[in-house]
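User: structure tokens for this one?
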Amino acid sequence: MANLTSMSGFLLMGFSDDHKLQILHALLFLVIYLLALTGNLLIITITTLDRHLHSPMYYFLKHLSLLDLCFISVTVPQSIANSLMNNGYISLGQCILQVFFFIALASSEVAILTVMSYDRYVAICQPLQYETTMDPWACRQAVIAVWVTGGLSGLTHTAINFSVPLCGDRVIHQFFCDVPQMLKLACSYEFINEIAVAAFTTSTAFFCLISILLSYTRIFSAVLRIPSAQGRTKVFSTCLPHLLVVTFFLSAAGFEFLRPPSDSQSAMDFMFSIFYTVVPPTLNPVIYSLRNKAMKAALRKVLSKEEFAQRKKYFKAIFQL
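Assistant:
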């Protein structure tokens, strides 16, 4: 441990020093990662192939799945490799890239969830203006803004986080390069940097949260005026999955980034980090597919033997050209 001061990288402590428990952790993370990979790839495939799902809502859902796929790939594979090799070392370059992509993708996810809530608001509260407001050009611009916003957020956080000199043992009590944990390693803990990071993150998340709350306040007030129970059920079937995803992701991330810093690391801290880094990308496909009849119908269609045979003939004909 004493030699860590001369290293340019960091030591990720992970969940346990016992190699057998590390193997167990690697296997569990591998199963979760494969489930997230499969679920999100299915949604991307379904929303791309099924013409009935070529609407703004499913267009944004496809990008949410793409973000989830990238988001979980930033931390979990590295953690699996470290556990299997019984070596928690991560180089400085790898840590910088991990922080950048983690913050960028997390910020993009919050932004896409905000855009999705606005899409539901226009569809339910302003149905006559929906096709005009959410036309293909506007949807593409919204998605571009989501990715650009995430990239700028990632650059800002990475620049601030790695601008402060680090001292002592470069030990991060987490299974990835977590920003709150890395701020504890600063030689002189500059308060202005902490305020800058916290203010930027909090203000962005707060703006998105307020936008989402306003959208759903208007949505629910409109839903209550729908006379038929069937109409209300149809609206809730498209809104509740999104609301569950927003609540789960923002509450877990908010606890991690806004709680007071502590010198000790508990099992609860690891659990909350899993709740906002690993669980949302895994559960999002399940939540959206189980609560959405169109998604379930499209999934059955894509997985059916007839559809598979038709796609096989289609790709075979393409390769023969």
